[in-house]
Amino acid sequence: MSVVVRRLVAFIAALVLAVEAVGIVIINVVMGTVVKNQDMSLAGTDPDVMSKGTWVLGGVSGLFLLLCAVILVVAGARDRAPGRVARVVLICCAVVHGVLGALTVGLVGWTAFAWMMVVLGLIVLALVAYGPEPEPEPEPKAEPEQPAAPAPA
User: Fold this and answer.
1) What is the CA radius of gyration of the chain?
2) Sign (positive or negative) of CA dihedral 104, 17, 26, 59
3) Listed range (45-54, 66-75, 99-108) with the worst mean pLDDT
4) Which terminus in the chain has less CB density within 10 A, N or C?
């Protein structure tokens, strides 16, 4: 894959993850506010705890997605593969997008599923694009010729 395509994929994936981070934070803040204002309880759970938990989940999810975006921006800027820990973080992000994509089909709809699969595809494409370069096959070494034996007398 060419350098231009690798960098473009990394930057687009980073941009999409940053937009998704903002969206996740906004959704969780709205959900937490609704729970707090409605004073709803789930099996006796304190509504304040539920709303604060939703806000914390939104913040942590947003920070995780921003971390993934930063990793992809750094990889694209340096045009080098992310390190081992960064690759694990990106793989975890891809797995989460795959699982959430499967859940969104029934809960939210096909549009949300398509969005999750596009993000998953961008993350996987960035990981594959910056994967290890295949090493060229070594040419077989020719054995040095043995000097000719002297003729028998």
Assistant:
1) 26
2) positive
3) 45-54
4) C
